[in-house]
Amino acid sequence: MAKNILITGANGQLGNELQVLFSQYQDFIFFATDVDTLNLCNKKEITDFIEQNEIHYIVNCAAYTAVDKAEDEMELCYKINRDAVRNLAEAAQGKAKIIHISTDYVFDGKATVPYKETDTTHPQSVYGKSKEEGEIVLLEQAPESIIIRTAWLYSLFGNNFVKTMIRLGKERTSLNVVNDQMGTPTYAADLAKAILDIIVFSENTQILASGIYHYSNAGITTWFGFTEKIFQLSNIKNCQLNPIPTSEYPTKAARPAYSVLDKTKIKETFPVAVPEWENSLEKMLLKL
Ligand SMILES: NC(=O)c1ccc[n+]([C@@H]2O[C@H](COP(=O)([O-])OP(=O)(O)OC[C@H]3O[C@@H](n4cnc5c(N)ncnc54)[C@H](OP(=O)(O)O)[C@@H]3O)[C@@H](O)[C@H]2O)c1
């Protein structure tokens, strides 16, 4: 019997990339929802939806992701990133398994080697704290869940760093970009495929290896390095790129200076691909 998968926040970057893949995963029936069709702040709505549609898996892509705005909209941010996750966990209990997405911003960025799942979290922003609390309530309410922390997501959909840099590169003659925050860009299409491959593997083995996992593309760069590559691959030549320190680009929310994620655990547990970030960027730009 085909298994039913609910995608929440399906109109976001990751949700849309999952939708692109639906036709390649014919063994599943997908239910793509967003706040207008399934508001995660309403527990009854979720409970009814799971029951009526006999949902087996939930991929929670819904989130409050406006990192700087969150500093002023703390209540709303917690409502979506923590309280809605609790709603989902309670509604899913005994019925559906949850795959939830979290972030590298749960770390303080003081590390010098890639973060492992067991490293201590210490978020520096409202967004990071709300996501950390989302992880905690999920593992309390539904310990059989999977949490995937990812980083620096971009996709064909919505607004993201890649699209913004291409626009600015065409509009401006010079651009300053931060060169002292290290991380790994992640093409949301790669993460979407990894999530669905984890579900396929779990179905085949009848084991959902619960817990926290790290997933991003492979490699390390800075926002400046990322932009250089975007410009090179997009043939943007008339905009001078200048590397600057974070201190010259103040933002409302603090970002970790280093947030490279160690992907060993996810690669050893599941048959997922972790492509190099440059290769995935090239693929995305060809489609853009
Ligand atoms: N973007 C990144 O760089 C990044 C990095 C690391 C981790 N992550 C995590 O990865 C996941 C996916 O991120 P993303 O970039 O795809 O996010 P996104 O593009 O902002 O999408 C989130 C979606 O959730 C929806 N949503 C908000 N409140 C909701 C509610 N109450 N009920 C149902 N849906 C609701 C949003 O709708 P509205 O747009 O109408 O609010 C939006 O469509 C998130 O958990 C995020 O924290 C993202």
Features:
288 residues; 17% strand; alpha/beta; two-stranded parallel ribbon; Rossmann fold; 9 helices; binds NADP nicotinamide-adenine-dinucleotide phosphate; six-stranded parallel beta sheet
Mean pLDDT rating: 98
Instruction: Please give the alpha-carbon distance between the first and last residues.
Output: 37 Å
Q: Strand fraction band?
A: 15-25%
- Tell me the domain tally: 1
Predict the CATH topology. Answer: Rossmann fold
Radius of gyration: 19 Å
Biggest beta sheet summary: 6 strands, parallel
CATH class: Alpha Beta
Share in helix: 25-40%
Helical run tally: 9
Q: In one word, what is the shape?
A: globular
Q: What is the count of β-strands?
A: 12
What would you note in describing this structure?
The structure is a single chain. The chain has nine helices and twelve strands. With 288 residues, the chain is an alpha/beta fold. The protein has one domain: Rossmann fold. It has a six-stranded parallel β-sheet with strand order 2-1-3-4-5-10, with helices on both faces. A two-stranded parallel ribbon has the order 6-9. The chain has a two-stranded parallel ribbon with strand order 7-12. Helix 1 packs across helix 6, helix 2 packs parallel to helix 3 and helix 5 (161-171) crosses helix 7. The longest helix has 19 residues, at 74-92. The model has no long low-confidence stretch (mean pLDDT 98). Bound molecules: NADP nicotinamide-adenine-dinucleotide phosphate (NAP). NADP nicotinamide-adenine-dinucleotide phosphate binds next to helix 1, helix 3 and strand 4.
